[in-house]
């Protein structure tokens, strides 16, 4: 596998477990063995949807100067995802971005990154009057959404919950997940005596000493 930015992606290893799994799923195994490339339908044109394009998607040379260039050629709204510090948020605002998304990408890249709920309030305090602050990573319940809104987030982004619903029951599953989150959000607001999103504030959030996350 090609070396990129100092890293080498591992080659897939075929083991006895792999062969056993393949025997349990013969149609998939046949398709895998007879396909020349592994296809990713949402990546690039049809003739380039394979593992070969993945190294190009992780460019370690991207810098703040690239954001300045994007801002010059694009007059629409731009949101920067992956912000976890006040410094990053401030630089994003200085480069003319319209929103920042407080996100550690689910903690998959570096498990020592702070939970986004732990850094949200200070980022809102630093730049919330100059740009919109959104948040994601680890939000699974309506009460989680309520907490983030109370801490100052303009919106909470969720993806995994919708994917679970999609995998289980297609479009109906996604609608069901949205309904669950909506009901939980409304119930939490009712228990907090908040009749609107605007009434959610930090007085409703209490942090246990030593606890890793805020609770509503």
The CATH class of the largest domain is identified as: Alpha Beta
Class by helix and strand content? Answer: alpha/beta
User: What's the helix-strand series?
Assistant: EEHHHHEHEHEHEH
The percentage of residues in β strands lies in: 5-15%
Q: What is the rounded Rg?
A: 21 Å
By CATH, the topology of the largest domain is TIM Barrel
CATH architecture designation of the largest domain: Alpha-Beta Barrel
User: Uncertain segments of ≥5 residues (pLDDT<50)?
Assistant: none
- Name of the CATH superfamily of the largest domain: Aldolase class I
Helix percent band: 40-55%
Task: Trace the largest sheet across and list its strands.
Answer: 3-4-5-6
Mean pLDDT: 85
Total E-strand runs? 6
Please give a structural write-up.
It is built from eight helices and six strands. It has helices at 16-24, 26-34, 54-57, 64-73, 86-94, 116-127, 142-150, 160-191, and strands at residues 3-4, 7-8, 79-83, 99-102, 132-135, 155-156. The model has no long low-confidence stretch (mean pLDDT 85). With 216 residues, the chain is α/β, with parallel strands linked by helices. The longest helix is centred in the C-terminal third of the chain and has 32 residues, at 160-191. A hairpin with a 2-residue loop joins strand 1 and strand 2. The chain folds into two domains: 3-57, no CATH class; 64-204, Aldolase class I (TIM Barrel), CATH 3.20.20.70. The chain starts with a strand and ends in a 25-residue tail after the last helix. Helix 5 (86-94) crosses helix 6 (116-127) and helix 7 (142-150) packs across helix 8. Helices cover 44% and strands 9% of the residues. The strands form two sheets. A four-stranded parallel sheet has the order 3-4-5-6. A two-stranded antiparallel sheet has the order 1-2. It is globular and about 55 Å long.
């Amino acid at each position: 596998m090609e070396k990129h930015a100092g890293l080498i992606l591992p080659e897939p290893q075929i083991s006895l477990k792999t062969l056993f799994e393949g025997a349990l799923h013969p149609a998939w195994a046949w398709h895998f063995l007879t396909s020349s490339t592994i296809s990713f339908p949402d990546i690039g044109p049809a003739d380039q949807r394979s593992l070969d394009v993945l190294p190009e998607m992780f460019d370690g040379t991207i810098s703040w100067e690239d954001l300045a260039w994007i801002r010059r050629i694009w007059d629409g709204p731009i949101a920067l995802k992956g912000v976890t510090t006040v410094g990053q948020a401030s630089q994003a605002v200085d480069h003319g971005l319209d929103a920042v998304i407080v996100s550690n990408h689910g903690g998959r890249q570096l498990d020592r990154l702070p939970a986004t709920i732990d850094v949200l309030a200070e980022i809102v305090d630093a730049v919330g009057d100059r740009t919109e602050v959104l948040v994601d990573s680890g939000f699974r319940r309506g009460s989680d959404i309520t907490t983030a809104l109370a801490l100052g987030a303009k919106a909470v982004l969720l993806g995994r919950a919708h994917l679970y619903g999609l995998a289980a029951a297609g479009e109906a599953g996604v609608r069901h997940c949205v309904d669950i989150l909506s009901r939980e959000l409304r119930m939490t607001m009712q228990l907090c005596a908040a009749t609107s999103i605007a009434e959610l504030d930090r007085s409703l959030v209490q942090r246990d000493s030593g606890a890793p996350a805020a609770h509503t």
